[in-house]
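Translate sequence into structure tokens.
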Amino acid sequence: MPDIIEITDFSSSDLDVFARLTEAQLRSRIEPEKGVFIAESSKVIGLALDAGCQPVSLLAERKQISGQAREIIARCKGIPVYTADNDLLAGLTGYQFARGVLCAFRRPNLPGVEARCADARRVAILENTMDSTNVGAIFRCAAGLGIDALLVTPSCHDPLCRRAVRVSMGTIFTLPWTRIGGSPSEWPGQGIEQLRGLGFKTVAMALSGSALDIDDPRLAAEEKLAIVLGTEGSGLSPETVAACDYTACIPMCCGVDSLNVAAAGAVAFWQLRAR
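Result follows.
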């Protein structure tokens, strides 16, 4: 039988992971080497479990225990399941509890870049992308549009933050990804050289008078290509653009100079997918 615990004390430290810890605290609260992350909805939690992530505790709306969350609870034997009505849970978490169930997981160990890229022909790189919604959307686009692996630079927003996981619809658990470099000083120099050593040509998605159109046949012809996307607003750093083998942009109409980074990523992934 699952260990169902009715919430009677909102101040209980057992609920901190769902209610009071910041994203930074979640990354190191329970186990300094790993920390925890929060997955939301039965579908996303199921994908995390399929990927081998280790659950710590569940927070479920009471009616979902015998409803949508039933299968998830059955898969998470031996961990506490905290429950209350929807209104109480929304007050506890601080946001609308619309998907019925949250799960706290231990953060997984990330493999190295070499392991993630071993069989890849197309990889995407997020340089300092700071908005969690964009990070999640880019993961979903990459997973659906032919990207084999995704790499994030050391200063990029955490892909395992709750909102990024939710927006990705769980593709963060199905698309191979890792960080490229352990500190900001390792990107772009060491990171670009590491990609070259793995046989990748790099293309910077950036506005430039000398940029190739994204449908230039030279790009599609590359056997292994890494597509580098930048931060919101300022885009890629000049150092990254200079270090890449190509610079490319999406031809635009009606005086619009560029797209949101997630939308631009979707276009780039489709156009530059391995044929």
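Note: DSSP finds twelve helices and twelve strands in the chain.
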